[in-house]
Amino acid sequence: MASIANLTVKDDGSFEGTLATLMVTAPIAIIPNGRKVKDSEPDYRVISRKNGYELGAGWVKTSQAGAEYISVSLSAPELGQIFCNIANAPGDDPSKKVLIWNPPS
After folding, report:
1. Cα–Cα distance between 95 and 19 in angstroms, integer?
2. Contacts 24+ apart (CB under 8 A), 6-11
3. Across 44-88, where does the E strand assignment appear?
4. Which residues does 63 contact at the CB level (< 8 Å), separation at least 6?
5. Which residues pair with 30 in a beta bridge?
6. What are residue 54's DSSP bridge partners?
7. Each residue of 44-77: pLDDT tens digit?
């Protein structure tokens, strides 16, 4: 499992950090979708903090063990489409998260 972003949890429920791959380094924000009206719409929007472009979306899901997590889909010409999850960062700081890339099987 590869970590592709370090994130900080903000007071408003959003996340901010830096997406970093071998070819891309970009400041991002994952913000709650305040305009959600249907269950099929994402719970979060992933936005480039550099230019404001939307890079993806996130959905709150429940694992088989009953734990909630956020599943994220990113899409950009530089990335293609990738899937990842927000997880706790190493250490004990609950305000620190990472974006874990889920490579295709």
Report:
1. 17
2. 6/89, 6/96, 6/97, 6/98, 7/86, 7/89, 7/96, 7/97, 7/98, 7/99, 8/95, 8/96, 8/97, 9/94, 9/95, 9/96, 9/97
3. 44-48, 54-62, 68-76, 80-88
4. 69
5. 15, 46
6. 47
7. 999 999 999 999 999 999 999 999 999 999 998 8
